Amino acid sequence: MNRFHGTGVALVTPFNADGSVDYDGLKKLINYQIDGKVEYLVSLGTTGESATLNKDEKKKIWAYTAEINNGRLPLVAGIGGNYTAEVVEAIREFDKNGYDAILSASPYYNKPTQEGIYQHYKAISEATDLSVFLYNVPGRTASNVSAETTCRLATDFKNIIGTKEASGNFDQFNQIMRDKPADFMLISGDDPVTLPMIALGAVGLISVSGNALPLETSEMVRACLRGDFKAAQPLHQQLIEFTRLMFVEGNPAGVKAALKHFGVCGDAVRLPLVAASAGLTQDIVSQINKIRK
């Protein structure tokens, strides 16, 4: 199986109560994922609150993550932004030791044209010899990477090897699967729609919920990839309410509340995010108890 087939987890960044990075919590989190049998890790995606970390913090987190992982799982670094030159500079300065790929979200807020999106990713592709994953998340970026642009990039640049699709648009998924190069990977960027996306031909998931429930999430994805949807359906259904709760008060507040319950790390987030409310935390713990009864 391709090393990026299966479940990747977009790691949260644990913080101490004073807002500093909790490296002990990060170590526990990485080992928790590996024990949970996920296939790969994503460091400093949007779930990692990368927008609230400065350059020095990012460098230290990437280096520490690679050190603790120690080659046990493939590693992907989240490096994106809405100023192409700055993203390219960050990629060129990135210490790729221990890393296998870059995940880069489409530019946010600017609302570039499809040609602008193409040129943005062209510059990223040409700035690195690492593999590159596109990340289409219109709900956060306010623009969509069309199926045509996705497949154009996949065809034109050999190191652009896949896309994390979080558009929720199944017509778009169908078009990508029909028109993409054979080895280009469609990956679910939304936990709840992973099962039907794999039925269409997606090769897995980059997960938020997997931070807290790596074993349950990765087992469901592996069952789907085997084509055993009869086994996958109950695994999928037991995660539906838990995953919904993860986003009720914003990501990653919900999943950090779950991780605190498991003793992996605390629930602190950086402003403008705030920690999950007591009521939401109670609901999350109740769902955990149902899943792991």
TrEMBL record:
UniProt site positions, description: Part of a proton relay during catalysis: 46, 109
Residue numbers binding pyruvate: 47, 206
Keywords, in A-Z order: Amino-acid biosynthesis, Cytoplasm, Diaminopimelate biosynthesis, Lyase, Lysine biosynthesis, Schiff base
In which pathway does this enzyme or protein participate? Amino-acid biosynthesis; L-lysine biosynthesis via DAP pathway; (S)-tetrahydrodipicolinate from L-aspartate: step 3/4
- InterPro entries in UniProt: Aldolase_TIM (IPR013785), DapA (IPR005263), DapA-like (IPR002220)
* GO biological process assignments: diaminopimelate biosynthetic process; lysine biosynthetic process via diaminopimelate
| Function as written in the Swiss-Prot or TrEMBL entry | Catalyzes the condensation of (S)-aspartate-beta-semialdehyde [(S)-ASA] and pyruvate to 4-hydroxy-tetrahydrodipicolinate (HTPA).
Tell me which family the UniProt entry assigns to this protein.
Answer: Belongs to the DapA family.
Q: What name does the UniProt record give this protein?
A: 4-hydroxy-tetrahydrodipicolinate synthase
Species, as recorded: Pedobacter hartonius
> What does the record give as the organism's lineage?
Bacteria, Pseudomonadati, Bacteroidota, Sphingobacteriia, Sphingobacteriales
Name of encoding gene: dapA
